Amino acid sequence: MSKNVETSIDRRRLLLGLALASTAAVIPDNSGAHASKLPENPKLIALDAELPAVAEAYHTAYRAYREMEKRWNEATPRAPDEITELGIRSPLEGPKQNGEAEMLALGGYLYRPGEEFPRRIVVETWNIGRQIDAARRTKRHAKKNGAVADFLAAEEEIKRLKKFHASVSAYEAKLRESKWMARADHERLFPVRNQKLIAFARHVGAIMSEDDWTMEGLVIKAAALVEWNRVCMRDRLYASLDGADWHGSIAASILRHAERNG
Q1: In which domain of life is the source organism classified (predicted)?
Q2: Where are the alpha helices (DSSP H) in 210-262?
Q3: Residue 227 burial (CB count, 10 A)
Q4: Distance of alpha carbon 172 from alpha carbon 129, whole angstroms
Q5: What are the pLDDT digits (tens) for 80-118?
Q6: Which of 5, 69, 198, 232 could form a disulfide with 52 if both were Cys (CB 3.0 to 4.6 A apart)?
């Protein structure tokens, strides 16, 4: 059993102990002996027993995806400094900046350490190709006019630009390959993460939908909600988008038990 599952079970045991103590305090004992423990909904008990495995399946899939995401974020090739300029504002803010924002292999903006905004890629191989063509025209024109100095300068410029082109071309090829491989990993791992998330949400929903007959059932629901709150905020939106009102369900149960024992 994993540490996360053990922690979840221990938390539920603690809450259950407190709830049972509270139940004993509020149930009248007219016979002079302790009141017998009321039975809890067996379906709720069964769902509670299954929850740790369902939760751990989601967390395992989530960690696998996040580790993959982190690996590709670190492996994304950085553009050569010569083809970038510093960003001056968020890419989402206007007016438009030069070039395109530097991106991660899996999508999202690439923020370099110590820099507030993503860099802007302002030069691509096609830009350098046009410069090479212009230098070649200059070279031909110099040759035709017998301008030796201009001819030699253009020849040196072509050599420099070709080397520059090769460097940028290698970066662009590596970035394309990284994007392709990262996308393949995403398509392999994200469906598993999403499937486990849906299973987790539906399981918690099933717990919330069952009637809680005693305080033990209320604690089971509260513990399930605590377990669900360990899910990342973006994934927790799944339940709200599905129209679930689990906090409202807990509140209704608390009021029902208070009225029953009042």
Answers
A1: Bacteria
A2: 215-228, 233-241, 246-261
A3: 25
A4: 14
A5: 999 999 999 999 998 899 999 999 999 999 999 999 999
A6: 5
